[in-house]
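Example 3.2
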Amino acid sequence: MKYFTIIGNHDAISLEQPGIGAALTIFFKYKKYLNGIYIFSFPDKPHFPYMQTAEKIKRRMEAEAPGIDVLIIEMNIENPIDFNLVYKIMLDETQTLFEKTNIIDEPKIINITSGTPTMTTCWVILHKAGLIPNSILVQSFEPFFQRKYGKTCQEVSLNIDDLPKINSPSKAKRALNRVNQENIILRNEKVVSETDDAIPGLIGKSQLIRDIKEQILQLVDANTHVLILGEQGTGKEVIAKAIWDVHRRDIDKNFNPFDCGQFDPNLIISELFGYEKGAFTGANQTKKGIIESTDGKMLYLDEIGNIPIENQGIFLRFLQFGDWKRIGSTKTHSSKIQVIAATNKDIYNSVVFRADLKDRFHEIIKIPPLRNRMSDIPMLTEFFLSKINKNVFFDSSVYKHLEKYSWPGNVRQLEMWVSRMCRKYQNRQISWVDIPDILKPDELNNRTVYDFPELPVDSMNFITQLRLHALEVADNNKAKADRLLGLKNGTLKQWIHQREKRFSK
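Structure, written as tokens:
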């Protein structure tokens, strides 16, 4: 579970007086469930040392919970009560975080007590709008109310789903860029028509994707057990839904996912197969498992690699024979279920995955990372644009640069980036000059000159072109160009000069 918190003025007091500051109060309540903490802070101000306080709280959290990663995210908010400013920055910072990490689908708790009332409101909106998925809101109490209510904090549940939708643009706005909007509609319709084939959810025309589509269509029958392999963000659940859509839609009314990553590994088997009352500590009543409730249908098991290796034999037998027992029971049950499982682990070289488990699956589908199918990026991008339904589209210059980036977060990262661009620009075409910061400095650090086009190495032309290319990619930022060339800041001119001398000899 991830923990999101802002550092406010009162949080400094908690370092000296426990129970006052919300950031630490909520941390102590939930620390045994946490595996990551994100502290949103502000630059130090004359009236309050925000970053210094954030660093102190970070050290306190790391001392209390060794092994938990704590990251400080600095938000440059000049006016903490300016709603327009605060909301934009909090939205940008959270979405950027999701683009750079793989935590978007992980459970999260959000501290809504620290910070200004404006910031609290923004957390609520981001949560209820689904922009921070799989999250809960938590508030803390000051000592007086802790004594009165007998608790330090509580989950907040707000029923604001019926907020009015404001979707009536002015006449001027409706008339703005009418031609562009018509072009966007035509382009989106084209994308939809191109993807409206036997498997509409699987986007791409590359040979790798065509092979996967063919593999799905040729599955033996609706009871075929399938194992899906792929890095995080490659679209394993998309593949599972495609299988359900092709082979199961007429049989099953609902797609049934079960995320093994959401549970303690030692509890996964009991959640799958159920348990009898008294089977273990805490089993106060008999409980049906997912397998029993899904009988006759398809079950999608995400992150199957999280099942402990000592328990994989139980699941292996179920795959092979279809029989199972509740934990603590001697009675054998039988179920007919099509299992679609997925994992991002290397099952062929993993020490936590039984070698014979993969053999119980009738079919294995390997999803390529996005970097191995760059030709699909334009089509994926257009599809996301049509799905988001924003009046935005990119010209060819954007795609040229998108295909240079490795996309470590794969298709999910691309979708998040498109969503971010749609929020930033509306009602017009976007070119590369509009988004010079698409590759952030830390991403540039991971690139080398080997990412550049082939250049002649037998003449001074090499030096000139290499320098110009680095500066172009870095948007004429010399420091970024240095990093692209694998150099320390400030050494570009010296590096060029040395090579000019060498080539001139």
